[in-house]
Amino acid sequence: MLRVLLVTDTDKPIGDLRDALARLGYEMLASTATPHALHSAVQSERPDVIIIDTDSPSRDTLEQLAVMNATAPRPVLMFSHDSNQQLIRDAVGAGVTAYLVEGLETERLAPILEVALARFAQGIATARTPRPGRERTRGAQADRPRQTPADGSAENHRARRLRHAAQTRDEPGCEARRGRARGRRGG
User: Fold this and answer.
1) Maximum CA pair distance of the chain?
2) pLDDT below 70 — which residues of the chain?
3) Continuous segment of H or E residues that includes residue 148
C-alpha cells in the first residue's frame, strides 16, 4: 500500500482529496504538510508519493521541492490552477513528476498516480543505466581540472563537451555525425 503525503499552500480544505485517495486504497499519512515543512515531513513520514495542492507554486515551494528531490527523491504530483508554461517547466525541473492544471476528479486519481510512479521509476532507471563510452569519458575527465564557465552554465558547458566528444570519436558512424555537425556550422 502506497503511503501518500498531502502538501498544500491554500486555505481550501483538502479532506475530499484525502478521503478519495483512502477509498482508492492508499495509506494517507496523518499530517498535511506545508511547502516550508516539506523536507522535514518527508524525513519523518517517509511517504512513497507526495501530492501538492496549490493555486500557483511559489518560488519557495519549488526550492523546497528541489532540496527534497536532491536528498530524498519521491514521485510528486502537483495540482495547480496556474497553466503558465514556464512555471510548469520550473516545477518539473524542481522534481515534479506530474503537473495537472485544475480538474481534479476522483476517478482520475489512480491513473494519474500510476503514471507519475511509472515516470519516476523510469527516471531512476535511466539515471542508473550506464551509457556506452561513459566510463572512458569519466576517466578522461577525472584527470583534468574541473573548469566551470564564469556565467555558471556548467551544465551547458558539459553538454557541449560531451556533444563534441561524440562527434569527433573514431567509431563507425561518426563520419556521418561529424558531417552533419559541420553542415550545421556552415562547413
Assistant:
1) 63
2) 103-104, 129-187
3) none
* Residue 113, C-alpha cell as written in the block: 498516480
Torsion, CA 58, CA 28, CA 120, CA 77, rounded to 10: -30
Tens digit of pLDDT for each residue in 24-60?
A: 899 999 878 888 888 889 999 999 999 998 888 899 9
Instruction: Report percent pLDDT > 90 for the chain.
Output: 25
Grid coordinates of 19? 478521503
Q: What is the 3-state secondary structure (H, E, C) of 71-130?
A: HCCCCEEEEECCCCHHHHHHHHHHCCCEEEECCCCHHHHHHHHHHHHHHHHHHHHHHHCC
CA proximity to 5, closest of 41, 40, 54, 58: 41
CB atoms within 10 A of CB 74: 18
Question: Against a cut of 0.70, is the pTM above it?
Answer: no
| β-pair type (76-80, 98-101) | parallel
Q: Supply angle C-alpha 6, 9, 15, rounded to 5.
A: 45
